[in-house]
Design a protein that fits this description.
It comes from Sulfitobacter porphyrae. This is NAD(P)H-binding protein. By secondary structure, the chain is mainly alpha-helical. It is built from nine helices and three strands, in the order H-E-H-E-H-H-E-H-H-H-H-H. The chain has one domain: Rossmann fold (3-Layer(aba) Sandwich). It has helices at about 1-15, 35-45, 60-65, 90-100, 120-125, 135-145, 150-165, 175-180, 185-195; strands spanning about 20-25, 50-55, 110. Helix 2 (about 35-45) links the parallel strand 1 (about 20-25) and strand 2. The chain starts with a helix and ends with a helix.
Length: about 200
């Protein structure tokens, strides 16, 4: 939040007229990294500058990496619910759409989730492997054995717990207002998971 605040203040001091901020989708309110995004949104809204907020959903590519098969099966504890994941290319296209006509988007917040929710079980089915989710305790222990930065394991666990609780599936998205034909998130996540599983 200090870093984001410094950037907002520097932009204001240098006379920047309009800031377009890449934030986190509303469905991500329970994720470990949500607070910094919400704080930054408020800082921008109080800055006196024009603002547009692009609230990105979880990347389909990230979901694919998180559920890559381990030992021939998917074990990441994502529960049975869906995640309204979105392709990075679609988020980039949405940002370009806003950048082409920024004045038309002043004071707007866009919720850019995927158009369909995907589940770990669906990805497993696409790959032809079983979905046997770990307990949270087992998953946390596994992450503790990986070369992660201190904040990363809790961040990943927050994604797993939010997915299991059903918080990451949404019914409506503004993505279709900015991107004509969003990509199939299940296909992207499945392809990434399959690639990650290769020795």
């Amino acid at each position: 939040m200090r870093r984001h605040g410094a950037v907002v203040e520097a932009a204001r001091a240098q006379g920047v007229g309009h800031v377009i901020y890449s934030s986190l989708h509303a469905s991500g309110a329970h994720l470990g990294f949500a607070l910094a995004h919400r704080w930054t949104e408020r800082a921008l809204q109080a800055s006196g500058m024009k603002w547009t907020i692009l609230r990105n959903g979880l990347y389909a590519e990230l979901v694919g990496a998180l559920v890559a098969p381990r030992g021939g099966k998917i074990t990441t504890p994502f529960g049975s619910g869906g995640i309204s994941a979105v392709a990075r290319n679609d988020l980039a296209a949405a940002a370009v759409s806003v950048l082409k006509a920024p004045d038309a988007h002043v004071g707007r917040s866009y919720e850019l989730a995927g158009t369909e929710a995907i589940s770990a079980a669906e990805i497993a089915g696409t790959l032809g492997v079983p979905y046997v989710p770990n307990t949270f305790e087992a998953e946390r222990a596994l992450l503790g054995q990986m070369p992660l930065l201190p904040f990363q394991a809790p961040m990943l666990m927050s994604i797993a717990s939010a997915a299991t609780a059903g918080y990451l599936a949404v019914e409506n998205t503004d993505l279709v207002d900015l991107v004509a034909e969003p990509q199939d998130a299940l296909t992207i996540a499945s392809a990434v998971a399959q690639a990650m599983a290769q020795p």
